[in-house]
Amino acid sequence: MGxxxxxxxxxxxxxxxxxxxxxxxxxxALADQMRLSEAQRRMWFLERLTSGRALYNLPSxxxxxxxxxxxxxxxxxGELTRLHEMLRMRYADVLGEPLQLxxxxxxxxxxxxxxxxxxxxxxxxVRRQAEQDAREPFVLLGGPLVRATxxxxxxxxxxxxxxxxxxxxxxxxxxxxxxxxxxLYEDFTHGREPSVPxxxxxxxxxxxxxxxxxxxxxxxxxxxxxxxxxxxxxALLDLPKDAVEPGxxxxxxxxxxxxxxAASAESLRNLGRREGATLFMVxxxxxxxxxxxxxxxxxxxxxxxxxxxxxxDTADVVGLFANTAVFRVRVDASATxxxxxxxxxxxxxxxxxxxxxxxxxxxxxxxxxRIPGRNPLFSAYLSVEGFSEHTVRLGGLIGExxxxxxxxxxxxxxxxxxxxxxxxxxxxxxxxxxxxxxxxARAMLDDLRDVLQAVVLDPEARRVDELAPVLERTEPxxxxxxxxxxxxxxxxxxxxxxxxxxxxxxxxxxxxxxxEMSLTxxxxxxxxxxxxxxxxxxxLNEICGTDLHPVELFEAPTVxxxxxxxxxxxxxxxxxxxxxxxxxxxVIVCLPPVGGDILCYAGLVMALDTGRPVYAAAMPGLHxxxxxxxxxxxxxxxxxxxxxxxxxxxxxxPPTLIGWSMGGLIAMEMAxxxxxxxxxxxxxxxxxxxxxxxxxREPDLVEEFSGYLSAxxxxxxxxxxRECPDHATLRAWARDLEIIGPEIDETRFRRLIELFRTxxxxxxxxxxxxxxxxxxxxxAADDASERRWAPWQAALxxxxxxRAVPGNHFSMMARPHVAELAGRIGQWTDLSSGGGARDxxxx
Length: 843
Prior knowledge:
Elements: H1 5-10, H2 14-26, H3 28-34, H4 38-49, E1 57-65, H5 70-83, E2 89-94, E3 97-102, E4 109-113, H6 119-135, E5 146-154, E6 157-165, H7 171-189, H8 203-213, H9 217-229, E7 252-260, H10 262-274, H11 279-295, E8 299-306, E9 323-330, H12 337-353, H13 359-365, E10 380-385, E11 393-394, E12 397-398, E13 400-401, E14 407-408, E15 413-419, E16 425-432, H14 438-457, H15 468-473, H16 499-512, H17 530-544, H18 559-569, E17 578-581, E18 588-591, H19 602-607, E19 614-616, H20 632-645, E20 656-660, H21 662-676, E21 683-687, H22 701-712, H23 727-736, H24 746-765, E22 775-780, H25 786-796, E23 800-805, H26 817-834
Parallel strand pairs: 4-5, 8-10, 10-15, 18-19, 18-20, 20-21, 21-22, 22-23
Antiparallel strand pairs: 1-6, 1-13, 2-3, 5-6, 7-14, 7-16, 8-9, 11-12, 15-16, 17-19
Helix pairs in contact: 2-3, 5-7, 10-14, 11-12, 11-14, 16-17, 16-18, 20-21
């Protein structure tokens, strides 16, 4: 329909505009392209009612000290607006009905030069410009809904002001934009083509999908839950009648803040862990106790945000996906904190199960009375964000936050809890300045500090005004850096041992920014929130072939628990390819080793930085009752058929085939078949693959299989067929040594052994095929690996590159060595596809 629909709309006459509006009522497809979502409509109406107030701005300001290219920044911002339709969106009004249409006009990057002023004047102007940008409202009718300004403080000192109207984006969108801005800035700085792919879907697709869902039985069922849950709930908090500062207007806000040091924050997480609750639930319980004391209400309603990005295509889309969930908390005067926390946890799990209902549609359906200047359904808000201090980069420069004074308050009181990378917490209590005095807000935050201190010492503590005796016994400081005596650190926790545990730990570790994870590490305690939970569960579902829902993280939030849940759930099917990592361009295919599974590639795929899609599939017979394929050639034919079915074999863009251990032999056989058929000549990466052929001695299958299981989890134990003559005793041996977990039942264990036996025979009967295409052999430096790669070199000659990677046959596939392994592969494939020479200078 074109990218300049707004400009064409402005050229229509009034009659033509009215006719267009009438058509949207008859043509659902046209309506989907122009109508606002429920959340957008609410912001549109509320902000137009309060003209001149910036109620829904999302401002950000970052300072970059060092050499910065304004031209590259302008080009990067322009590419962002091209990629994301919502950044080009304009609003129009036809007979009071808002419509949205994309504009064809580029984003205007305004540059303000401050270099001619003295140092003090420059700093004052930076603060003034940041505050003005944060407070200046957008022109909703026809105006751009995003603006960007660069303040040039000095030749090597710049401030970027980026502001979005909340109706076109949310917190996730801002993080996404800054990540993509950094990537595009690098591209334009170095004269490269833009490397950020276009999103698979758009925000308008989400809005249309949401409107269709609202007419389904699922929506009716969720609405019935909310009718029952919120029946008779209080509409407003009974706040103290404060004497506020003169001149305060609705929407004006103030902020009081407090830091919670890492040791004390960990104590709060431990409290939640003992009760099966998240940090959000602990904070909500404490917050409710404080609200009860200051308002006198035992029946409280607290709002909070959920990401609203359950669909897999929404992760890379800018738009207002965030939804508001409502939590009803009843604070019984006779209940202990532990009892309150149990109740809050139960309520939260029910809310999460019905969080898809758009808040604004819910308000309309419940016919909630509208009170001018007040939020419907709740007037207290809570947000707990994991690792919320997002690092903003441009080139090699790290952006410093520039804080603008003043605040906007959408609610009477809002508690914002931000988790930092070091484990500490930042607490900001934002309050409506036209209703609460700063002294009252400070008293509320002080009470919250007292509650948090007391419940860590004694979860049986009751009301806030009953906490004094507890605090008198001992007064821990929330700012105390010392950890509680006897508390076990993460480093002292038990390390993951099974393959599934290691995959969960690798996946969570990458998403949460942690190099190591123990079995008892809790996803939510380490900063995992709804946004990251979607990514974590989706990625593990793809790798493991499962169908788990993110809400199941609440039932199994530890590495050990979630690994057990994945194992018990089982794979959907072993027949098809899995997209382990999405991307664009030539595909990468990972072939399974002798054990038949693809979990071993989790760490490598996460470390690969090629931007290309990665596919893999487990061997037949591992997750189902199919008979194992009995030769390497049969396995190669099986995987080639999977690739053909998915349309992934193209002569102009052949796949890159990666195989660890036995997977390398399958990859070589596939490459030879494609080459012989003139279908393609793929790149092949062999990761410490043994040469095929019969063993020098009669093998003991039990000894080989037990050694394989042990080595896969970093152990060295083995047993023999004399000690373990049958499946049951061998499984008992592995269970007793905790090499496998209870999720590997007798049936799955028999499958593992049978598949291993079949693959060992296939290796004995195979040979190195002749191949003239590019092959890279990555050898484990800690092993005597020459016996593995020398036969390959003798057979393939100069077409084979051999490079060493730290680690042994198994540890090279795990952190920290897998990062170098991935780097070698990425560099080699770039050189191969680009035709560059591989010599000591480039390699």
